[in-house]
Amino acid sequence: MGNSKDDSKQRKAEREALREELLETQFELRSLEHGSVLVLISGNDFAGKAEVIHSFYEWLDNRYLNTRAFGMPKGVDKRMPRMWRYWRTLPPAGELGFYLGSWYHQPLMKLSRGQISINRFTAQMQDILHFERLLNDEGIILVKIWLHLTDDERGTRQRVDPSLLKQTVAMREWGDFSAADYEKVREGARLMTELTSTNESPWIRVPATDPHLRDQRIGQIVLEAMRQRINTPPVPRPVYGWQPAQRDYLAQLDYSQKLPKDEYQQQLLHWQNRLRDLMQHPRFARRSLMLVFEGSDAAGKGGAIRRITQCLDPRILRVHGTRAPSDEERRMPYLWRFWRRIPADGNVVVFDRSYYGRVLVERVEGFCAESEWQRAYGEINEFEQQLTENGTLLIKFWLAITEEEQLKRFKEREASPVKRYKLTEEDWRNRKRWPDYVEALNDMVEHTSTRSAPWHLIPAEDKRHARIQTLRILCEALEEALE
Amino acid sequence: MGNSKDDSKQRKAEREALREELLETQFELRSLEHGSVLVLISGNDFAGKAEVIHSFYEWLDNRYLNTRAFGMPKGVDKRMPRMWRYWRTLPPAGELGFYLGSWYHQPLMKLSRGQISINRFTAQMQDILHFERLLNDEGIILVKIWLHLTDDERGTRQRVDPSLLKQTVAMREWGDFSAADYEKVREGARLMTELTSTNESPWIRVPATDPHLRDQRIGQIVLEAMRQRINTPPVPRPVYGWQPAQRDYLAQLDYSQKLPKDEYQQQLLHWQNRLRDLMQHPRFARRSLMLVFEGSDAAGKGGAIRRITQCLDPRILRVHGTRAPSDEERRMPYLWRFWRRIPADGNVVVFDRSYYGRVLVERVEGFCAESEWQRAYGEINEFEQQLTENGTLLIKFWLAITEEEQLKRFKEREASPVKRYKLTEEDWRNRKRWPDYVEALNDMVEHTSTRSAPWHLIPAEDKRHARIQTLRILCEALEEALE
Fold it and tell me: What are the boundaries of the signal sequence (chains A, B) (predicted)?
């Protein structure tokens, strides 16, 4: 009796001491402009996942906790790429995130139910590893906790203590599983932790039998993670084996192609009508379209885009000019601001410049570290792969002009009231780096021209020719995708 | 023949001249950090609403055009307050917005179909006028255009020129209406334009027979609107007849109430269990809960909030600390950042400080103009009314402590490692303005304590007492709302 009272006193003191440290460290963490801590809480039902979160809500400043719980996807989450909902809700720099039922939940659930094969599961774990490496590279410390109860303990909790269950918030994400089902979940979890325990983010198994010890342990882990982020700012991971392009793609273009005005008018009418028809195709309602326009300054991106948007219903269209990130965007991983702009089913998004800025202007101008642009190729490929696998038709255009043509257009712009605003000091500066851009462009084409999202290099010396080419390629791709 | 060719040449020249002016003015507009132009395009089917938008997409820099089209609400739009979807999509400062099927569409549709009475329609028009006045006060120039076709013209277009329809994007938002139905729409539109043509935003009727003249006219109107915004920065509208509070609400509070520890523990258990039960109520799935906590510094908001959030499922909970607006938020009307955080069905949002900052800290510290905080009371009431009418249970707490108690707590905070971070220079500064805050508080209570969202002033000299009071009020309000 006396012992138990001492115990309780000691526990209270321990809890209070931890709380002080956590709260102070959370406060320090908030000053970071880069980097955050994301904690995945997984594990058996009845192991107290919700109680763990409640402890943190009791300990920490609630305003900088980002708790998200993910069940099986519903509504729009179901129709967007698998990782979209996780991307959207990442914690901003300086804050803490807690995910209940993270990206592991769905694959594990499906494996346990026999809905996917081990091979498919393993492939999904690989995708997850790539995603987690990206988070790590972006300065997010990922803590993966598996709350562990033995079978007996689970049984006891489930049978004996209904009042406890009532007091807690039910987190029965596994539904009403039988003992045999649980065995399957456990097997799956074992495989999962084996496949996805990395140096940076190992799975940490926390015994959940004693709620006090459980919360103290997790509190310590989160504390250490925050301290690590505060004391060791994220260091760019060097990219091994990155190879510059072996070909000069631009040099192979035929810039001499031209389209006379009459023929242009005729073709424009033809392809625009074709595009209007295709956009009415009933199958488009279940697909989406994302167009990426890149090109040298004054290559005619805006004009080519307008010839396309003229044919599109403004209700389903967004044109995004990629500008400097907002302060909310700056506190998020690089690709976040593009993830938030991807098209929903039946919609069209046009990027007038895009996430490729990372490997073009940011690389050339030195706005990001070498390792950042070098790893961007792979990250972009994975981003695009998720989009195309989910039914987005992704078409990427590079409008190419020669250095001489650009100079001619700059001079014309200076003289034209309509176009003057388009020309800035920066454009003249960029021009001086022409060879660097050519190099960056060739690397981009080499590393990101994939089968499902190849680059289309369009000679744009003649604007009419370029406009018809983009329209034609778009129509043909839509036709193939829809018919 | 020769004449028609000259005409066509002249039209082309006119179009080009307008385009130059529009593009230059759009470029100037972009430099504004405050204010934008929002154009509502309404009117008959076949009057060319989509073509008008296409003209602007052809003329202007697409990246700063925000086109939205609203049909009858579906999905989440249907479950959120009526104006939510319009709030969310307002154009940022310096940009242009085009709304097709704006907030007028649904009431007009319903009136024409006989689904709402004239009285109800008129009341909705009043709500709209309030909303438009707010937009105007926030520096958004609202241009309301009604595209007009006579019956004959409509008939002709519909019957005779299917190729034209095919070339355009169908915008048949009115569905397949008969002539009699159209007559009803026209009657409703007449009433609508009468009721909602204001000095700041009159309805402008534009003949839509000739597409060239139609687009030229609208282009001119938009040009003038942009110029007006650029040349005359928004001037705060003085608020007439604003009256300070007639009572001292704080003085009436009994600060002596106390709760001994034993009783507190017992009551805490009781009310927290009650709250957990209530949150499981099946009817809550169709309602939502928004809690607003305000109070002097160190009044114990965080502690009271934690006693509540402990009982809530983290999956349906968000706690927002109201911080300085982000740069995206700064380019939007004041209430935008709160509209984007309102709870969806079945969810709980807690504001640890809120939009009331406008009439508290911003007023006292002079962060906004007198007219801004004076008009905020009415805007907040309308915001809250829309929430409560839509089924959100909104509960507002002011935690009140005396000046002496605050000083005591500040000193305790200085000494405590867990609480030290909570105390800033600003807190000491605020303290010096105690009488100003009392005045602001009384005005706030007087002007925003409405029947559906009254203020609860909680004496918080004793934290235990305050925590139990907030829990009890919350439980009782939930009980009344759900049972």
Answer: none
A240: in domain: no
Tell me, yes or no, whether A288 and A215 share the same domain: no
Distance of alpha carbon A465 from its chain centroid, rounded? 35
A202 within some domain: yes
Shared-domain flag, residues B59 and B207: yes
Note the pLDDT of residue A162: 42
A422 secondary structure, DSSP code: G
The pLDDT, as a whole number, for residue A19 is 92
Is the ipTM beyond the 0.90 threshold?
Answer: no
Specify the number of domains making up chain A.
Answer: 2
What is the band of B166 on the pLDDT scale with cuts at 50, 70, 90?
Answer: very low
Same domain, B176 and B258: no
The full DSSP string for B111-150 is: HHTTSS-HHHHHHHHHHHHHHHHHHHHTTEEEEEEEEE--
d(CA B69, CA B392): 26
| Residues in CB range of A138: below 8 A, 6 or more apart | A234, A333, A334
Contact B242, B374 (CB under 8 A): yes
Check if the beta carbon of residue B288 is closer than 8 Å to that of residue B391: yes
Q: Which of A113-117, A417-421, B30-34, B445-449 has the lowest mean pLDDT?
A: A417-421
Co-location of A213 and A271 in the same domain: no
Task: Give the single-character DSSP code of B353.
Answer: S
Q: A157 lies in a domain?
A: yes
Which pLDDT band, with edges at 50, 70 and 90, does A1 fall under? very low
How far CA B427 is from CA of A59, B410, B438, B443, in Å, comes to 22, 9, 15, 22
* Chain A residue at shortest CA distance from B28: A421
**Buried b / exposed e along A392-427 (16+ C-beta atoms within 10 A):** bbbbbbbbbbbeebbeebbeebeeeebbebbbeeeb
Task: Please give the average per-residue pLDDT across A444-448, as a whole number.
Answer: 97
The answer to whether residues B147 and B225 belong to one domain is: yes
* CB within 8 Å: B24 and A418: yes
Average pLDDT on A213-219 reads: 96
Mutation site for B-interface testing, chosen from A169, A305, A309, A354 by largest number of B Cβ within 10 Å: A169
What whole-number distance in Å separates Cα of residue B126 and Cα of residue B382?
12
**In this structure, are A277 and A215 located in the same domain?**
no
Pairing of strands B392-400, B455-459: parallel
Distance from the B102 Cα atom to the nearest Cα atom in chain A, whole angstroms: 12
Q: Which of B197, B231, B265 marks a domain boundary?
A: B231
Measured on CA atoms in the order B29, B31, B32, B36, is the torsion positive or negative?
A: positive
A:B CB pairs within 8 Å: 130
Q: Which domain holds residue A85?
A: 12-231
Q: Average the pLDDT over A239-259 and give the result.
A: 91
Average pLDDT, integer, range B273-295: 96
The whole-number pLDDT of residue B173 equals: 47
A247-261, B173-187, B221-235: least confidently modelled range: B173-187
The CATH code of the domain that includes B69 is 3.40.50.300
- In a shared domain, residues A23 and A81: yes
Name every chain B residue with its beta carbon within 8 A of the beta carbon of A50: 313-314
Q: Under an 8 A CB cutoff, do B305 and A61 touch?
A: no
As a whole number of Å, the CA-based R_g of chain B is 27
Contact A167 B273 (CB under 8 A): yes
Under a CB-based contact definition with an 8 Å cutoff, are residues A346 and A285 in contact?
yes
User: Which of B312, B323, B418, B423 to mutate against chain A (most A CBs within 10 Å)?
Assistant: B418
Residues of B in contact with A23 (CB under 8 A): 418, 421
Query: Is residue B75's pLDDT more than 90?
Result: no
In this predicted structure, the answer to whether residue A2 has a pLDDT above a threshold of 70 is: no
Partner residue opposite B327 with nearest CB, options A23, A305, A327: A327
- Residue B237 located in a structural domain: no
Interface probe, candidates A39, A63, A65, chain B, greatest B C-beta count within 10 A = A63
